[in-house]
Amino acid sequence: MSCKLGTIIELPKISDPRGNLTVAERFKGIPFEFKRVYWTYDVPSGGYRGGHAHIHCREFIVAVSGSFTVTLDSGHKKQHYLLNHPYQGLFVDKGIWRTLEDFSSGSVCLVLAEDDYDEADYIYDYNEFIQRTECLK
């Protein structure tokens, strides 16, 4: 499995005095066909989301409102990304551990996922994640 840490991708931003518009289209900026869209909001102060990796599913994470920090971990390297622009997203490859934290008040995190929900695709135990990462070198 070839795993790399995330990539910030800028989506088209159409400026208009009535309000800006950003569009997300499969294979146009987002490097996969997304089958599922979900969002998190009202994350309590000091709370976090994520805390897992995916075996197959790639994701594209956008702060559509407010800001939060995404920490990506390959098992060998960690990197932090501050998401705070609704026209930018973070591409997260399969096999990368992710944690989202430091949510600002009123923030909304939108995720475009490559696959439908499948519990078997999640790795929730960090030690298991590290073992799988070691086996896949």
Automatic annotation (TrEMBL):
InterPro entries: QdtA_cupin_dom, RmlC-like_jellyroll, RmlC_Cupin_sf. Residues 7-132 form the Sugar 3,4-ketoisomerase QdtA cupin domain. It holds the Pfam family FdtA. It comes from the Bacteria. This is WxcM-like domain-containing protein. It comes from Prevotella herbatica.
